[in-house]
């Protein structure tokens, strides 16, 4: 279930959004990434941005129905606004998964229509669903009927030999007909044959203009852009053309940039990162995780890129990578690694 753990950095827990077509925080989101955006990653990211919309990894509907629900769906209340991304292609199962998720306090439930992995292909969901917009519509309608929070969809511009013009329009129209008016678009095709999931993130060319045309065609819908956004400058520029932007690997690999999101995207007052407080928060969080039987590396692996480009960043990564796998590794390792980072006084302890 949701655990009410409050952050030293934020000092607040965001209230869940009411059921509207757009989730609070949607102007900037951190993309759902399998093996990356787990609950420890999200807790860490929330220390850097209070307002961005966070996403879970994709959780398959069958797993929610039959698996360990606390492990799959549990999260800390401080992560809100938080969206659960679900994978599946059977309306009844997706609807039941939404009902189960209701007890866990998510702010949004998102249907994955973009993942090209072998796993989703064998299960005929994810990006495969780009070929079946009518089925997507039935899935979304069932989810929306079962959910008390907004239901959204994240898709590609097409798959394989599809023409992105009708493919994306058909998918979007099916979503809107189902009552779902928030559409996140990864602005690349997915090639289900011939490219690995990793290659599908880089090789198919980006087509932002196709997403812009969708927004122009559907001015009343929320259209968000995902794919290839590596800088906050580029993301902010896109907000002149679409309603929301989603950053993935760049946010994960260089998380420090997230500290600017609240001011530049949401109009909040600039808030310098108090790195000492951040490390203390994450050390306390890691201690609680260890008390529950977890391992230190499950927390620290998401923090390796925090000081990228700063003096001492290599030593920070080395201490955490080598030390977290040792028997009895404890949260003090974070403070030891932080001591190796050479920051000036203003950056080490923000006012």
UniProtKB/TrEMBL annotation:
Catalytic activity: 5,6-dihydrouridine(20a) in tRNA + NADP(+) = uridine(20a) in tRNA + NADPH + H(+); 5,6-dihydrouridine(20) in tRNA + NADP(+) = uridine(20) in tRNA + NADPH + H(+); 5,6-dihydrouridine(20) in tRNA + NAD(+) = uridine(20) in tRNA + NADH + H(+); 5,6-dihydrouridine(20a) in tRNA + NAD(+) = uridine(20a) in tRNA + NADH + H(+)
Active site: 115
Top-rank EC class of the record's enzyme: oxidoreductase
Cofactor(s) the protein needs: FMN
Site (described: Interacts with tRNA): 112, 198, 201, 314, 317
HAMAP family: DusA_subfam
Protein name: tRNA-dihydrouridine(20/20a) synthase
Organism annotation: Aurantimonas manganoxydans (strain ATCC BAA-1229 / DSM 21871 / SI85-9A1)
Species lineage: Bacteria, Pseudomonadati, Pseudomonadota, Alphaproteobacteria, Hyphomicrobiales
């Amino acid at each position: 279930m949701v655990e009410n753990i409050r952050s030293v950095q934020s000092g607040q827990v965001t209230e869940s959004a009411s059921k509207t077509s757009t989730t609070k925080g949607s102007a900037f989101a951190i993309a759902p990434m399998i093996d990356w955006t787990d609950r420890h990653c999200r807790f860490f990211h929330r220390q850097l941005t209070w307002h961005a919309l966070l996403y879970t990894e994709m959780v398959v509907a069958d797993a929610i129905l039959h698996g360990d629900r606390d492990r799959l769906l549990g999260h800390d209340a401080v992560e809100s606004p938080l969206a659960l991304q679900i994978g599946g292609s059977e309306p009844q199962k997706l609807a039941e998964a939404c009902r189960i998720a209701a007890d866990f306090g998510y702010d949004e439930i998102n249907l994955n229509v973009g993942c090209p992995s072998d796993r989703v292909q064998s299960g005929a969901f994810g990006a495969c669903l780009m070929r079946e917009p009518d089925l997507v519509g039935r899935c979304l309608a069932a989810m929306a009927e079962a959910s008390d929070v907004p239901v959204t969809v994240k898709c590609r511009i097409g798959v394989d030999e599809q023409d992105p013009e009708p493919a994306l329009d058909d998918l979007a129209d099916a979503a809107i007909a189902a009552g779902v008016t928030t559409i996140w678009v990864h602005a690349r095709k997915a090639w289900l044959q011939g490219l690995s999931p990793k290659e599908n993130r880089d090789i198919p060319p980006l087509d932002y203009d196709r997403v812009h045309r969708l927004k122009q065609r559907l001015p009343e819908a929320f259209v968000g852009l995902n794919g290839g956004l590596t800088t906050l400058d580029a993301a902010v520029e896109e907000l002149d053309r679409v309603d929301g932007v989603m950053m993935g690997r760049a946010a994960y690999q260089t998380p420090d940039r997230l500290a600017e999101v609240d001011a530049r995207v949401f109009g909040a007052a600039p808030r310098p990162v108090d790195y000492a407080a951040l490390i203390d928060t994450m050390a306390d969080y890691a201690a609680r995780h260890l008390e529950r039987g977890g391992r230190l590396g499950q927390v620290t692996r998401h923090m390796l890129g925090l000081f990228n480009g700063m003096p001492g960043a290599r030593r920070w990564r080395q201490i955490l990578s080598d030390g977290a796998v040792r028997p009895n590794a404890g949260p003090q390792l974070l403070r030891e690694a932080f001591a190796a980072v050479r920051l000036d006084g203003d950056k080490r302890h923000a006012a």
